[in-house]
Design a protein that fits this description.
The protein is α/β, with parallel strands linked by helices and 480 residues long. The chain has helices spanning 72-88, 104-118, 152-173, 181-194, 205-210, 214-220, 273-288, 333-346, 361-366, 378-391, 402-406, 425-434, 468-479, and strands at residues 2-6, 17-23, 48-52, 58-65, 93-97, 142-146, 198-203, 228-235, 243-247, 249-253, 293-303, 314-317, 323-326, 351-356, 371-375, 395-397, 415-416, 442-446. Helix 1 (72-88) packs parallel to helix 2 (104-118), helix 3 packs antiparallel against helix 7 and helix 7 packs parallel to helix 13 (468-479). The structure holds ligand BES and zinc ion (ZN) (2 copies).
């Protein structure tokens, strides 16, 4: 989307639709207060009210609610609603008058984010070969912020990360017969080709086996698509610790021999949402040129059942030599993340954050409102929580405890991938992962509840791209 910042009046700008925010106790600007309908405009949050300007340009009043309750989140929501209204009206250029909030940069970021995310569509597979002439309207293509020139940098930053989040949504939504492990690897290669400071290395099944990554080998044994281990590095000349990012890249999770029920299984194409967020946040961080150093590791495979698949009870050896009894082949995410976390530490990660659609239990605990964070380090946990608050991608910390770890002991191997009791599923999964990070500060983010079907105005009910804004904010904070 083309984003521009102009210090001008809503009626003076050449956009198809000009949006003006209104607080409940507010009044409309002079320039539009005489337009038809202006007298009835109310400022209730989420309420939209179109006004008709004589000259043909349309004006939309967007309710912002109580002035004292305004927040970046409310502005993201209002902007997404306005963008959807613009699509409905089939206008392609939009202008937003920056509302008075006391924090112009944050408001500009929020309006750009809400507009870019709220305009998201995925029509790659629609209308092909049907001969139909009604191709979809172009949607919102440009946004002009009527705001002080000083907010231009904030607006541009938001454009970069929100577009990255939309690309993560594309990767999530692309079906598993297209978005395979090699497709994710090709995307990583394209990111490296686009940015001088990014390098990529991709390992295939033989190299993965030769390195002794027994978890990734085991999950891939069911067949289907060949696995990939993707490493992206970004050298941003940072002065802080190298940030390791790990993303679960299961491009389809059938459960394997511990087969999932059929109903809803199509959603398991989203089991690579962590990988999508990691890849596209690296792209955004590189595009923004943030002063941090990154090493991102994405283990990617399908989880399929077959005669060669791993079976419940099989014992495997992970990259760091720890042995694991695979008591449920549907708990595959932790097996591939275990190798990837240990590998990221070896590659120089000094602070680790992993994103994974790891457990159904996290949705029971926190719904789609918060992602769970489990960390072995208070400072990193606090940094993640703070990045969540700033970005609006909220997280909530759950505890570690030796009693949870005890549930993950194996009978014939060091560990079991399935807790011995059906308790605290999100935490026991994290306790398993903790065995593979050594002393490195690490935060695990379980995004199974937040990666899709979130239901917020700007993310909708399909893929959300959760994690891109959070990781970019974490990197921005570290770089500042
Ligand atoms: N990918 C799933 C987790 C998941 C489930 C994500 C539903 C989103 C929606 C993961 O691989 C899995 O199957 N986890 C099991 C673990 C269990 C067998 C210990 C789960 O959560 O049921
Ligand atoms: Zn699974
Ligand atoms: Zn899974």
């Amino acid at each position: 989307m083309k984003i521009e910042v102009l210090p001008s009046e809503p009626t003076a700008v050449e956009a198809d639709l000009a949006v003006v925010g209104l607080y409940e106790d507010g009044t409309l600007p002079e320039a539009i207060k005489d337009l038809a309908g202006a007298g009835d405009a109310k400022g209730a949050f989420k309420k939209l009210m179109p006004l008709h300007a004589d000259a043909g340009a349309r004006v939309l009043v967007a309710g912002l609610g109580k002035r004292e309750e305004v927040s970046p989140e409310r502005l993201r929501v209002a902007a997404a609603l306005a963008a959807k209204e613009a699509s409905r009206l089939e206008v392609s250029s939009l202008a937003w008058a920056l509302p008075e909030t006391g924090e112009d940069d944050a408001a500009a970021e929020a309006l750009v984010t809400g507009t870019v995310l709220g305009s998201y569509r995925f029509d790659r597979f629609k209308g092909k070969g049907t001969g139909s002439e009604d191709s979809p309207a172009p949607g919102v293509e440009s946004l002009t912020l009527l705001a002080p020139a000083g907010t231009a940098a904030a607006a541009e930053t938001a454009r970069v990360y929100a577009e990255a989040q939309n690309r993560a949504r594309d990767l999530q939504t692309t079906p598993a017969n297209v978005a395979t492990p090699s497709y994710l690897a090709a995307r990583a290669e394209a990111i490296a080709a686009d940015h001088d400071a990014v390098t990529v290395e991709v390992l295939g099944p033989e190299q993965i086996a030769a390195k002794g990554m027994g978890g990734l080998v085991a999950v891939n044994r069911g067949g289907g698509e060949p696995s990939r281990l993707i490493v992206l590095r970004y050298a941003g000349d940072g002065s802080g610790p190298t940030l390791g990012l790990v993303g679960k890249g299961v491009t389809f999770d059938t459960g394997g021999i511990s087969l999932k029920p059929g109903a809803g299984m199509q959603e398991m194409k989203y089991d690579m949402s962590g990988a999508a967020a990691v890849l596209e946040s690296v792209a955004a961080i590189a595009e923004l040129g943030l002063a941090v150093d990154l090493v991102a590791v994405v283990p990617s495979t399908e989880n399929m059942p077959s005669g060669s698949a791993i079976k419940p009870g099989d014992v495997i050896t992970q990259y760091n030599g720890v042995t694991v009894e695979v008591n449920n082949t549907d708990a595959e995410g932790r097996l591939i993340l275990a190798d990837a976390l240990a590998y990221a530490v070896e590659l120089g990660a000094e602070r680790l954050v992993d994103l994974a659609t790891l457990t159904g239990a996290v949705t029971i605990a926190l719904g789609s409102t918060y992602a769970a964070v489990i960390a072995n380090d208070d400072e990193l946990a606090a940094a993640v929580a703070q990045a969540g608050e700033v970005s609006g991608e909220l997280t909530w910390r759950l505890p570690l405890h030796p009693e949870f770890k005890a549930l993950m002991k194996g009978k014939v191997a060091d560990l079991s991938n399935l807790a011995s009791k059906r308790k605290a599923g999100t935490i026991t999964a994290a306790s398993f992962l903790e065995e593979f990070v050594g002393e490195t500060p690490w935060a695990h983010i379980d995004i199974a509840g937040t990666a899709w079907e979130v239901g917020r105005e700007y993310t909708g009910n399909e893929a959300s791209g959760f994690g891109v804004r959070l990781l970019v904010e974490l990197a921005r904070h570290q770089a500042s």
